[in-house]
Q: What sequence folds into this?
């Protein structure tokens, strides 16, 4: 097992990475001996959640219940969030409760938001079961739900007690979901670490084949980078925004297409290509880096073609309500080199429009 720490003073917490950690009694005993509510989805109940509930009961947790959410990004909303509150209130959970998010990014984001809100804050754990959640959404304390007019526009910064990353669960992950997770792994190389990007170019075939050592190394490096960035800027006042490379473009695709039709990682993968394209047009990035990014994202099994029914105005409409808009100015994460991300509103609108036009049929 490998151990990392997100250094946030009195809100610091560990990230455990290894195989078969869902059955690790030391982790469960340390964090889950009181009232425990497992939040999972319909896909994972029989695969992992039932067993986790049994483990907690056998270890002596004072109270263990489970709430099962519908599976899919389209259910990441306030209506579904209320299912968690309904369970907490009907079963009379108090402030000593611990929520466990057992699932992908949707489950993790909603569980964390519920934990932040219930009785003004209770403890929660992240046990992510998708690669995307393991390398991104489970770390850093961003929680929330979607709105029809924008993704993740309702939420809170709220840190977990710990993150338990069991690499073994990726064996049951659908290939499309694995590719979507790899998009976020590629992001870390593009924004922060050129050496890691080169490692991904050399090891992409191993990741796609689910080689345990390669996956563990990619997860550890991704979490290490995110932990470093979050420790410097917990609430995204500056540096942390670089973690959103491609997300402004990608969120527009997700919102326009209907949440769940494009997976988050698929939309972000294409969004990163668009951000690289725009960086080249600004003269900030060598065209060779764009070519390498396109090649690696394609090798990961991610789409390079944009939705055919989106216009430039469709993109701009959704991008206008992005969380990074400040004083009516759209800020984008762009690149000034491989591993050199910047947050900038210093660009002509025509350059953004030219990039979008090149991806619209």
A:
């Amino acid at each position: 097992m490998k151990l990392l720490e997100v250094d946030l003073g009195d809100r610091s917490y560990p990230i455990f990475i290894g195989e078969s950690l869902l059955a690790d009694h030391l982790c469960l005993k340390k964090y889950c001996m009181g009232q425990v509510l497992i939040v999972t989805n319909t896909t994972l109940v029989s695969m992992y959640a039932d067993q986790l509930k049994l483990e907690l009961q056998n270890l002596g947790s004072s109270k263990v219940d489970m709430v099962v959410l519908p599976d899919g990004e389209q259910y990441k909303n306030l209506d579904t969030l209320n299912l968690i509150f309904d369970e907490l209130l009907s079963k009379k959970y108090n402030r000593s409760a611990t929520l466990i998010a057992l699932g992908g990014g949707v489950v993790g984001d909603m569980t964390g938001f519920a934990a932040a809100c219930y009785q003004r804050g209770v403890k929660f754990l992240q046990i992510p079961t998708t690669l995307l959640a393991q390398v991104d959404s489970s770390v850093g304390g961003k929680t929330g739900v979607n709105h029809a007019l924008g993704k993740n526009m309702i939420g809170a910064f709220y840190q977990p007690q710990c993150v338990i990353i069991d690499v073994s669960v990726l064996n049951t992950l659908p290939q499309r979901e694995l590719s979507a997770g790899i998009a976020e792994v590629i992001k870390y190389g593009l924004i922060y670490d050129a050496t890691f990007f080169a490692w991904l170019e050399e090891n992409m075939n191993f990741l796609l084949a689910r080689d345990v050592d390669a996956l563990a190394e990619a997860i550890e490096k991704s979490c290490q980078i995110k932990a470093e960035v979050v420790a410097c800027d917990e609430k995204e006042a500056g540096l942390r925004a670089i973690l959103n490379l491609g997300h402004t473009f990608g969120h527009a695709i997700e919102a326009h297409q209907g949440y769940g039709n494009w997976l988050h990682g698929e939309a972000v993968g294409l969004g990163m290509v668009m951000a690289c394209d725009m960086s080249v047009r600004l003269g900030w990035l060598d065209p060779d880096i764009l070519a390498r990014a396109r090649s690696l994202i394609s090798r990961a099994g991610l789409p390079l073609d944009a939705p055919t029914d989106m216009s430039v105005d469709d993109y701009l409409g959704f991008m206008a309500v992005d969380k990074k808009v400040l004083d009516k100015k759209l800020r984008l994460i762009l690149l000034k080199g491989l591993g050199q991300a910047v947050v900038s509103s210093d660009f002509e609108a025509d350059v953004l429009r030219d990039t979008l036009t090149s991806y619209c049929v």
